[in-house]
Amino acid sequence: MSSYVTRKTPGDTEWFTASRFGMFIHWGLYALPARHEWVKNREEIPEAHYQKYFEHFNPDLYDPKDWARQAKAAGMKYAVFTTKHHEGFCMFDSQYTDYKCTNTQAGRDLVREYVDAFRAEGLHIGFYYSLIDWHHPDFPIDMLHPRRDDPDAKQQNEGRDMRKYAEYMRNQVRELLTNYGKIDILWFDFSYSNNNGVGDKAWMKGKGKDDWEAEKLIALARELQPGIIIDNRTEIEQDIFTPEQQQPMEWVRHPETGELVVWEACQTFSGSWGYHRDESTWKSPEMLIRMLVNTVSLGGNLLMNVGPTARGYLDARAEAALKVYADWMKYNSRSIYGCTMAEPEFKAPADCRFTQSVDGKRLYLHLFAYPFIHVLLPGMAGKVEYAQFLHDGSEVRFSEGGMEHFGEGVPRDKDLLVLNIPPVKPNVLVPVIELFLK
Ligand code: GLC
Description:
17% strand
């Protein structure tokens, strides 16, 4: 069994860590401007103009069953859908606002259809819910707000009551965790209590757990959905830590205690969470696979994001990226599901990553750069019963103590295990060798 013990969590994270791989879905009115989900903030778009996106929102090609099929094929075991992003627009039929999808040409509860479709494919259901709301009349204008530079920002801010907004969030979280069946993940985003205005903007304050009344929000969520997994972005630690758009170099640890924690890296296929028509920094197929493997090799989960178009479908670039995962996971998912960081005794060679089954019986060697005919595994002689390529189950023969011939320059070492691999890389983006341990 894995020797790694993670910090205890309030929610049920066992299914989560076994799943390892999920789909993030960022979809809202920002799909119409199609230039990043923060477009309202970045361009300080006037309300009247942003209202055009509300009036023209018509996702006539929305088919979440198709999304769910692609997510499942890609090997994703759960999904997290933006029920409301920072723009404040609700993708569900909330009774607490008119700023919602059922009041647009969509005329339907988009969250409901997402839940039904993904649940039908057997995926766990997650909701992203933005703590930030640039539309709500009681959300105080601050340094992130699109109205921050309006000449009358201070006047606009008069009368805004954060307590009423915190109550609005509780009412909506109650709707989301009551009306859609069992919800497995609640993903709040995000706190910025240190981001305060200066000079004539000194009245613009950042927002954190006290502003959100986060304790009440979390208590409500756990009352309604016992076992639910909640992230750490209310500023109150819960179940998962959430490094974003980065590749940690080690298993994420608790900032105070240093304990290993349950963690999930969230990443985009390109440079935007929301659909971005003209953004071109799409990750290569190799990068996509390496990110997943690297994350699991450090004991983490990967939440990979799609940004659907305003018409409601996943564009060809997103579908191609999902297909990369589908093609690799079809044969190699055994090195991901139910796996974690390899035990300390197993040191991966250069340009490789190990993952290990939680039961400790199988070790997976991922070849990020394909070596020439041999892989040297110091210290592993006597530990491996059998070896095979995972994708096709073909035997990988090995010798112990040194190379079989012409091994000048390679140390003869009784503890050395040498894998003999074909000179031509198999037709697999990242080949995996499955080592059955004695
Ligand atoms: C950041 C972005 C937000 C995105 C989130 C996903 O908070 O500001 O737009 O939804 O990351 O983790």
